[in-house]
Amino acid sequence: MSQHTEKLAVMFADICDSTGLYERLGDKSARRLVEQCLAMMIDKMKSNQGILIETKGDEIMGVFQSPENAMNAACAMQNAMENYNHGEKLPMHIRIGFHYGDVVCEEDKLFGDTINVASRVASITRADQIITTPAAVNSLPPGMRMRTHKIMRTDIKGKQNQFDIFRVIWETDEAALTHARLGMTAYSKLPEKVVEMTLRYRDKSCQINEHHKSAVLGRDESCDIEVNHGFTSRRHVRIELRSGQFVIADQSTNGTFIRFSDGHSVRLGREELVLHGYGSINLGQSYEDNPLDIVEFLITTVSA
Fold it and tell me: Which PROSITE patterns does this chain map to (predicted)?
């Protein structure tokens, strides 16, 4: 049985909260949406010289000859998903992780540490994100390397040392690209108009803007807004201003429920989501279980 080692970029990509889709739409409609989304992801993978290795449920795995091709495919997937979501009442979100290194190839099977690391990277990626590793970033052309920035260090199972983790800026707008150029003062000028979010809970309120870029909600007294009931984690959720968008990141045990002004609801479980317009946030419980104990949010445009 022939076996050889090849340097490849390994990618895992999956659909976020597909279980919630089945609960909201029913098996038939949800399955159709999932299949359409997977088909789009596979198409973008193949059109960027990727090879589909496996489809498992709502996840695909593929390999590329270079991190450049992998990153192009990942960005194409996220942009296609964003275009699909425009105007949709039920938006879908995907997350993508990839790593670059030696892969053992044996007929139609792949083995090795690179696959394990890629899988781990994908598992810590949040909705609407592309995450990768130093091995991949260092092998990118300089222009593409500018579209990445380090966001954290983490433990990888089986590894003695922690890994640096990089986020890929896939958005095409200049504001998002500016966010990647950390430390470059030439890009630090604020726009004439900026956005601000107001959060209200009972008699408490706070703002998130260019001067106060994040807020934490939870039952701990140190939180910007304290929501203290049995289903709330100590530091349940974080909302921060990134490149002109307000991103909510669930970091709780019981999840976070969000309802937008059009009535569309989303459940986050250790995931991120971009908030828009106005709506409400329910920490740890669904709106059916707890319709009143909610945090309201409103996003407005104000003068700089």
Answer: FHA_DOMAIN (PS50006), GUANYLATE_CYCLASE_2 (PS50125)
What token pair was written down for 210?
Answer: 């260019």
170-209 pLDDT per residue, tens: 876 544 444 444 433 333 333 445 688 999 999 899 999 9
**CATH code for 4-180?**
3.30.70.1230
Name the one residue in this structure whose structure tokens are 């990647």: 180
Report pLDDT digits (tens) over 63-82.
999 999 999 999 999 999 98
Sheet hosting strand 245-250, strand order edge to edge: 225-226, 214-218, 237-242, 245-250, 272-275
> How far is residue 227 CA from its own chain's centroid?
25
Distances in whole angstroms, Cα of residue 271 to Cα of each of 124, 252, 255: 9, 10, 9
Q: How far is residue 48 from each of residues 18, 38, 94, measured CA to CA in Å?
A: 26, 16, 18
pLDDT of residue 190: 37
- Write down the domain spans for the chain: 4-180, 193-303
CATH classification for the domain delimited by 193-303, as one of 3.40.109.10, 3.40.50.720, 2.20.25.10, 2.60.200.20: 2.60.200.20
Distance CA 140, CA 142 (A): 6
